[in-house]
Every structure is written in structure tokens, then in C-alpha cells.
Amino acid sequence: MMSCTVVVDGFFGDTGKGKIVSYLAVADDASVCARAGVGPNAGHTVEKEGRTYKLRMVPCAFVNPVTRLLIGPGVVVNPEIVLKEVEELGIGDRFGLDPQCAVIEPGHIEQDRRGHLKGKIQTTGTGTGPCNADRALRTARMAREVPELKPFLADVPHLHQPLPRHVPLRHLEGRLRLGRLLRRRHRPHQGRRGGPHLQGLRDEGRGRRAPWGAEPR
Description:
By secondary structure, this protein is α/β, with parallel strands linked by helices. The protein folds into two domains: 4-102 and 153-203, Adenylosuccinate Synthetase, Chain A, domain 1 (3-Layer(aba) Sandwich); 104-140, no CATH class.
């Protein structure tokens, strides 16, 4: 029987997801930990062997030295942060990033830190919102187009055997620890058909391929 543990934040962050995931990674000896959700917002704080780590992109399950660490195709990524954390943690041999992740660029960050987004919405200023907007418009740059990320590219939804059909869909936010990931590939779409629970699953590439709209670049 395949197993899947989902860590969900039902509030607005700062609820200890990172600490919970790091604990489960060791306690359950997780084979895979996949990042879902939005992107590099406030981040997660994890302690290992007396040292404190503040992570914004890499899954907190790095504390288990045998856990495969993945970022699914629905997550927007900042290459500078990804590369910095991978090097700092020394996890290059077990880290994978889906080529369909949209890339946060300097223009997204600048846009997120001024005007309506900063003054009215009070965003974190990380560029995730504007990047997701470009992703919806099929104009965002993808991870596969960034040379520095190519050594870490991995077809995340294809890495493991599919879950059986009778397993119910679940809404995924923040981080997701998986024993298995679906083999079926899904390209990131912004459409909400099928409800928010299906959109969450699409963030990790676990939903069915959407029958509407064009494929992203």
C-alpha cells in the first residue's frame, strides 16, 4: 500500500509547517519530499544538529540524508535562492526541480514591491504574484530555460509509480511529503475547473491533464 502524508496550512502562514515536515521526514523515513504551494515567501525555519536553517525554496526534509527533495511544476522559483540553498545544504545529488516551474525574474520582484501590490495588498515582495500572473498568460520563463538550473531538472510527476485510482484527491499547500508521486504528467494551468482541491494537486503535477486551453511554453 502506497502512503502519502500531506501538510496543509489552513491559515496565513507561520504555523510551523517546516518543523512538522522536517520531523516527519525523519520519523517516517520519507523517501520523497515534494514542495507545493506558491514560491519563496516568508520561508521555513528548521534546526539540525544545533544549527538553524532558514529555507525559502528547498523542502525541509533535507534533515533526512536519504530523502529525495523535489519542487513540483506548479511552484514559481527564484533561481538565485534555489542555487544558494542547494549549495549551502550540499544536496545537489538528491535535489530535483521540475522544468515546468515558472521563474521569478527581477522585473517580477520590482513590480511586487511597489504600487498597488505593496501599498494595498501588502505582499511579501518576492515576485511570486506577478510571476504567477505571467505564468497564467503563458509568458513566464520556465526553469528549463535557465542554464544554471539544468543540472537539477527532473520530471517530478514521472519519478514514481502512480497512486491507485481509489485514492481521493487532496488539496496540497505549502509542502507535501510523498511515498510515491503520480507517473502521469501534468503541465501547470491556472484554470480552476474542477475546484480548488484539484488546483492544489496540479501544483505538484498530480492532477489529470486539463482538456482545455493551450499548453504553456
